[in-house]
Amino acid sequence: MAYRPEHSTDRWGESERETRGGGLNSREQPRACNLSISPGKRLETRQHAHTLAVNASLSLSLSLSAPLALSPSPLRDSCLLIFRDPPNGPASLCLPCQPNGVCQVPVSVAMMTPQVITPQQMQQILQHQVLSPQQLQLLLQQQQALMLQQQQLQEFYKKQQEQLHLQLIQQQHGSKQQSKEVSAQQLAFQQQLLQVQQLQQQHLLSLQRQGLLSIQPNQTLPLHSLTQGMIPAELQQLWKEVTNSHVKEENSATNNGHRGLDLSSPSPVPPKNHNQHGSTNGQYISHSLKREGSTLDDHSPHSHPLYGHGVCKWPGCEAVFEDFQSFLKHLNNEHALDDRSTAQCRVQMQVVQQLELQLAKDKERLQAMMTHLHVKSTEPKPAPQPLNLVSNVTLSKTAPEASPPLSLPQTPTTPTAPLTPLSQTHSVITPTSLHSVGPMRRRYSDKYNMPISPDIVQNKEFYMNAEVRPPFTYASLIRQAILESPERQLTLNEIYNWFTRMFAYFRRNAATWKNAVRHNLSLHKCFVRVENVKGAVWTVDELEFQKRRPQKISGSPALVKNIHTTLGYGPALSAAFQASMAENNIPLYTTASIGSPTLNSLASAIREEMNGAMDHGNSNGSDSSPGRSPLPAMHHISVKEEPLDPEEHEGPLSLVTTANHSPDFDHNRDYEDDHVHEDML
DNA sequence: GACGTCCTAAACAGTT
DNA sequence: GAACTGTTTAGGACGT
């Protein structure tokens, strides 16, 4: 009775203040986004580019999101990071990434940057440079590492050459065109190598400028040792495939695709600071790399993007390991640089490219939608800031997967909830952003019949950590909780747990929202109580859920279409994949517009998918697992307070009979008792 | 203004 | 008896 709108408003305002003050503008800004990696390509990711960056782990582009644990790989020390703070400020180097850590630069990048220092050069350095012991040690490490690296590359090249030789023998009868292609490929490869050499020279030049290396201008750099005779077409093609797309991206994105190090301004930071975290850049580095799921942090050395929950996440591997070390061993042994891994990388690259393509399309579509909606909305509401969480999700994918326990202090500044300022992310506003604004929240999920799952998925980290009320109705949330469960049924307590697990907001005021949950469960026909031996679980009658509201969007075919195309979600897919591949015709359990015959059939499909198995389950009188039957036990379904004896009726009325009701009839019955029950009684 | 929906609050009954 | 679960009612806010 004592509903106080001002109270509600205050709470919202508070949440938004918390969100914006502590989250969006927080110091938890992913400053790592401004990190540049060199040599070769000065590649910078910014906040809005994380989504792509995370997928570009094999590209020449910066791919901090997919660090490869190379320890004790020699590649580790061969990467050179350039840090800028501010982003346009002078560069400072970090060499190597981390003395005892793991390189953040993917193999493809690290391999491009061999810093071969001859003994003569080393001697020169010793003679002419006053270097600290640390620097000397670093250089020695580099030298050793690079020699090892060279050996590896030579072995690799040898293999490739043998393969190529075999291939050439097989293809000797091939046409001239093929040989022409091979020649062209060789040419291209030579160009690539030339670029690499240039990059390496630039790299060394940068070293020189940093005072770490002193080389006479006319001195021949010993870089050719790497590439001596390396013209196998196979390797070339491989290289091309791995690098081409992203080189193109860079070339198109920048006027100079081979800028290499930006040495226009020599770093004012003396080399002695390179490994110190006390400096600004040091903090930057540490912070940045940590935020990218790095294993550099000595306190959390067991995080790796290819390792989660004790399972190797290498595509198709799924090997289980008891500890991180064994995983690393496995990674280095089983997923070393060989043909198989390369092929898998290729596949992954294609997947990534497809996703990127899809993402680009979706972004474009979203932009169009936003533009369209903005044109219509005459009053821009200034106060609430939409939250861009797309990149956050992407980031979170690379972060340790340990979800924050419920007992954690939930502040918007929690590192697991990185927030991106709106000002930088206009182009990627999630659908929620439009609706998480003030009192509109509760209409979000239903008004346009938009599925809430992608939003929840995308903003999961945020909702889990920020005490911001989710812009969904209780009914939508309950439905989501149930549908997310493997068996699509939850007990009340499990629903509670889902709420508290997924939303920090629901970790307080439990009495209020729990009451609301119960109220909604009981009130809405779409929630069906299924009695078990152990108790009762709640399931969702999807059709009923869809009938809850008449759709007013029929007049906007474009919107309908857009909604329709974003309906596809499969529980087996990962969250990010769901978000980006929503329209890939994956079976869904979500809302559909009732008015459209197409969507009606879609809804029928949903119903069949949800209940079709139940037909088989109906004959299964003895449930081997009574507590958690994957099929909602029809014979135990009780619709609200009137349990029916399934023996006396042909089937559960709620799921079958209501499917034939017209929406116009049904959507008004949400609050009313099912008179069918009375008929049947 | 009517209507529908959502939210909050509360009372009540049954079950654990 | 307390806590939990489930149902129902009531009233206000808000959008259509």
From TrEMBL:
The UniProt regions of compositional bias labelled Basic and acidic residues, in chain numbering, are: 1-20, 663-681
Which SMART domains does the record associate with it? FH (SM00339)
> What are the DNA-binding region positions?
469-542
Where is the organism placed in the taxonomic lineage, from the top?
A: Eukaryota, Metazoa, Chordata, Craniata, Vertebrata
Its primary localisation, in coarse terms, equals nucleus
List, alphabetically, the CDD domains matched: FH_FOXP2
Alphabetically sorted, this entry's keywords are:
DNA-binding, Metal-binding, Nucleus, Repressor, Transcription, Transcription regulation, Zinc, Zinc-finger
- Bias type Polar residues, positions: 426-435, 617-627
SUPFAM superfamilies, alphabetically?
A: Winged helix' DNA-binding domain
Composition-biased stretches, type Low complexity, lie in 408-425
Which residue ranges are recorded for the region named Disordered? 1-33, 246-284, 398-440, 612-681
**Subcellular location per the Swiss-Prot or TrEMBL entry:** Nucleus
| Name of the protein | Fork-head domain-containing protein
Segments forming domain Fork-head: 469-542
